[in-house]
Amino acid sequence: MKIFKDFQAWQLILLLCLGACQPVGHNTAELIDPWLRDRTLESVRLAGQVGTSIISTDWRDDAHGTITLNLIVNSIDLSAVRVEEIVLKDLGEYTPTASVKAGDTIDLSDGQGEIVVTAFNGETRTYIISYSGTTLFNGTFAFAAEKSSLTWGDATYCFLAGGPDADVRTGNIYDHLGAAWNKDEGRWPNDELDNVVSFKQTYYDQDNNCQYGTFLNLPGEDGLYANFVYREVPEDEPENAFEKDCNSIYRLIPQGKGRWSNEVGSDVFAFYDYSDDTYSNPVGEVQLLQAGTYTIEYPGATVATSWCPGTITVADVAFTRLYTYDSYVDHGDLVASFMADNVRQVWWLMTRTSDGCLENHDALIAEIQ
Question: Does residue 185 lie in a domain region?
Fold first, then answer.
């Protein structure tokens, strides 16, 4: 009897096991080799593109992907953006195909476009292209005349900060010693005030992401440029007059015509003689500031903010240049200690009058010797 019961128990266990092994609706669809359905877009580069493309996919929705890039929008026709390069994952005979190839164009005029990649087995993935816009530099500028908060000197475009670490003073170039400049002697910063500056972008190097161009700094009706020759005559010792040519300090944009370069995305511009068509030997650099209020401060130095401006406000745009020194020149009580020597920063306040260069920019470039 015990043997019979053991046999029944084993039969029950066997039946339960067989029942557990029956199919329960699992997906038994045929598996596809992954390389047959691969739709990987490894890289793409469009005309006027800055930097590399960011390509993303989502495993939860592998029929779609995104391409994000940065384009120079004022150098291309957005309705027909040329494909410079497109690279798909190399799978030999199973390599996917794309809806465009190098040399084709994509319409991005609505702000987006697409590239469709088709796998060997016919599955597709649509990559949506979106872009942010960068603008190449062109423009026409006039000089802006303002007084500093000190209101001591004439209104002008040229502002400065200067002095040794213990006493950095700020203001415009006429504030602290207007008598250091003399119009009758041809030493007058505001002779530049009626000038016009024109920048034209002529070439963009996609490989190093730099733009190049020409500039004009044209005199106004008076035909004059500023001549930054500083002369200080002590009242009690006129025989000890101090004089220094400060054009290398205060002249931010060269006279006449020249060339410029800029890494796209940077606010630093380098200037070159016009004859330097290889852009090899810069003669100066400036930083372009947009509208805003900027704090005047320098590491390890004290700005005399108790009576000098501690900020500078740019209403439209400004060019500026910083200077650093290993040591400082002490002229005792002379204002030259921060106006002629130890100048730390110079600003030229400007107004953009046009987003393009002068209409006759190229003709004027050809005329100027």
Answer: yes
